[in-house]
Amino acid sequence: MLQEGNLTTNESCQIHDGILSPFLPIGYIVICCIGLLCNTVTLYIFFFREHADTSMVVYMRHLTLADTLLVMCLPLRVYYHNKEGPFYLCKVVGIFFYINMYSSILFLSLISLDRYLKIIKPVWVFRIQKTKWSHAASYIIWAILISGVIPFFTSNNHEHPCDKICFHFHSKGLAGGTINLTTLVLFLIFYVAFLCFYVKITKKLRTMSMGNGDPKAQ
Where are the transmembrane segments (predicted)? Predict the structure, then answer.
């Protein structure tokens, strides 16, 4: 009975990706190679070549750094695909992956807001457009994301039999579910804002191209 129970538990913990199973590792490796190449060039451009110190450059530096760290996690995700342990390192990789994924989303939203203010409201001066504020906002984003995942990093709860399988998602407790739901809602808010900013920017540029003037975007 004990062996049968263990067998049932092990079978229930298997991750079945179906048709995607053989293609996910290949896709991760391809994305990693292309991403590292492109981001290395971008890092050189924004960190080692002279640029005017603008809010756009500040956000692009942090976005490129986040993207680079994100693609560097992909080979480890391939290695841990449907594998067990070492669970401590697995947890580090998973948390590292999601920190950089969400930071990329947030920096893209800040870039879209920066473009919106400079194109739609070119004669207005906003504190958010100053480089000092841009640096502060970028550091705050990193601090909030890192602080938000500390509870997951420090938890040692392995009550569920599948808890020791990397990237296996099962039903969470109230705290974990609340954090996941909050993260999803915030993602949707930033995504909708991102779309709204660029829709308005596109309309403004289209109007300018029809002879009504040029946007004073920097």
Answer: 26-47, 59-80, 92-113, 133-154, 174-199
